[in-house]
Amino acid sequence: MSTETFSWLPKVEPVGNVEFRLKSAKFGDGYQQVAEDGINNKTQSWPLTFVGDEVRIRSIVQFLDRHAGAAPFYWTAPLSEPALYRCKGYQPTPMGAGLYTLVATFEQAFHP
Fold first, then answer.
1. With 0-12 CB in 10 A as exposed, 13-18 as middle and 19+ as buried, what is 49?
2. Half-sphere exposure (CA, 13 Å, Cβ side) for 58?
3. What is the pLDDT of residues 46-74, one digit of tens each?
């Protein structure tokens, strides 16, 4: 199966989190040695909010359900190139008048 691309646009101004995974060792004299942990030590996660009618939100939910938190998909984060992400869960909220909000966090994934 080919890797799908997530193409829905979230609500404006998402705030991402970029972290560097590091290994460190502290010594008795106050010196600390720090090194990158692995070849993919930079990871991103993006809490995203989608707002729309039932048809739009249902199509996003179906996409996320199809991947079931395990299968990665392509998504392009702001200031980044397309990369693999996973979504382990989401929170749908009915807002009334046929509108819904869907909150989901995309976490960067890597090829083995």
1. middle
2. 5
3. 999 999 999 999 999 999 999 999 999 99
* DSSP letters for 55-95: HHHHHHHHHHHHHTTTS-EEEE-TTS-EEEEE---EEEEEE
Token pair listed for 40? 């993919």
Amino acid making up residue 100 = Y
What pTM did the predictor assign? 0.87
Residue 38 falls in which region: left (phi positive, over 0), alpha (psi -120 to 50) or beta = left
pLDDT digits (tens, 9 = 90+) for 36-45: 998 999 999 9
Q: What tokens does 74 get? A: 């392509």
Contact call for residues 21 and 37 (beta carbons, < 8 A) = yes
Helix (H) or strand (E) holding 11: none
CB 104 within 8 A of CB 11: no
Neighbours of 35 (CB within 10 A): 9
